[in-house]
Amino acid sequence: MRLDYLTIFPEFFDVLGISLLGKAVDNGIVDIHAHDLRTWTHDRHRTVDDTPCGGGAGMVMKPDPWGEAFDDLLGADPDPSVHVVIPTPSGTPFRQDDAAQLSHADRIVFCCGRYEGIDHRVIDYASEHWSVHELSLGDYVLNGGEVAALAMTEAIVRLVPGVLGNPESLSEESYSQDQEGLLEYPVYTRPASWRGWDVPEVLMSGHHGHIAQWRREQSRELTRRRRPDLLTDE
Ligand SMILES: Nc1ncccc1[N+](=O)[O-]
């Protein structure tokens, strides 16, 4: 899987060289390239933004640098197997299913906007050539798409075979299908008693059926309290 990041702050993506994702890069499972969008500017000030047509506060990212970056990175031939992800607060909510779907992609290009956003014609142009996903991390506003791109990257890449040491751990996570899409149950480890708090007895019983039942009940109760929207049968 090749991941490209178009951004005016490429140093944001240095962090991807750390830990699990760093190992995935070292193992050649993932190939990461961060690009400074100003590479594709030609004026002395390396300008990437301009005032919004129709007025309003703030600045909008000019289309030219994006178009030239696309030309260099992707060429002009349409290829639906290339996924262009635009993190934006106006996108559809990014969910575990999106991470799962994108984990099968061979190529993902993250377009990280700043300011008031990217000239919409960039998205229109990209949509004619590649598979475009305008995705939101949540209902809040960040200063740009970089932090969201990092979060989406981690959610996607950890699902790529060979990246996680123990793929088993994927099946018992929140939102995973094996968990019926419910929130993950509370977890415990040693010591059995800590500052007056004990590990639930059932988890020390060694009775796998009872443990599985307790965990299912905990997941459903937690989901009912915190995320009733995830309960499909109630
Ligand atoms: N919430 C966001 N704010 C700015 C850029 C991107 C965002 N997002 O959620 O992907």
From TrEMBL:
<protein>
    <recommendedName>
        <fullName>tRNA (guanine-N(1)-)-methyltransferase</fullName>
        <ecNumber>2.1.1.228</ecNumber>
    </recommendedName>
</protein>
<comment type="subunit">
    <text>Homodimer.</text>
</comment>
<keyword id="KW-0808">Transferase</keyword>
<dbReference type="InterPro" id="IPR023148">
    <property type="entry name" value="tRNA_m1G_MeTrfase_C_sf"/>
</dbReference>
<dbReference type="GO" id="GO:0002939">
    <property type="term" value="P:tRNA N1-guanine methylation"/>
</dbReference>
<feature type="binding site">
    <location>
        <begin position="137"/>
        <end position="142"/>
    </location>
    <ligand>
        <name>S-adenosyl-L-methionine</name>
    </ligand>
</feature>
<dbReference type="InterPro" id="IPR002649">
    <property type="entry name" value="tRNA_m1G_MeTrfase_TrmD"/>
</dbReference>
<dbReference type="InterPro" id="IPR029028">
    <property type="entry name" value="Alpha/beta_knot_MTases"/>
</dbReference>
<dbReference type="InterPro" id="IPR029026">
    <property type="entry name" value="tRNA_m1G_MTases_N"/>
</dbReference>
<keyword id="KW-0819">tRNA processing</keyword>
<comment type="similarity">
    <text>Belongs to the RNA methyltransferase TrmD family.</text>
</comment>
<dbReference type="GO" id="GO:0005829">
    <property type="term" value="C:cytosol"/>
</dbReference>
<feature type="binding site">
    <location>
        <position position="113"/>
    </location>
    <ligand>
        <name>S-adenosyl-L-methionine</name>
    </ligand>
</feature>
<keyword id="KW-0949">S-adenosyl-L-methionine</keyword>
<keyword id="KW-0963">Cytoplasm</keyword>
<feature type="domain" description="tRNA methyltransferase TRMD/TRM10-type">
    <location>
        <begin position="1"/>
        <end position="232"/>
    </location>
</feature>
<comment type="function">
    <text>Specifically methylates guanosine-37 in various tRNAs.</text>
</comment>
<keyword id="KW-0489">Methyltransferase</keyword>
<dbReference type="Pfam" id="PF01746">
    <property type="entry name" value="tRNA_m1G_MT"/>
</dbReference>
<dbReference type="InterPro" id="IPR016009">
    <property type="entry name" value="tRNA_MeTrfase_TRMD/TRM10"/>
</dbReference>
<dbReference type="GO" id="GO:0052906">
    <property type="term" value="F:tRNA (guanine(37)-N1)-methyltransferase activity"/>
</dbReference>
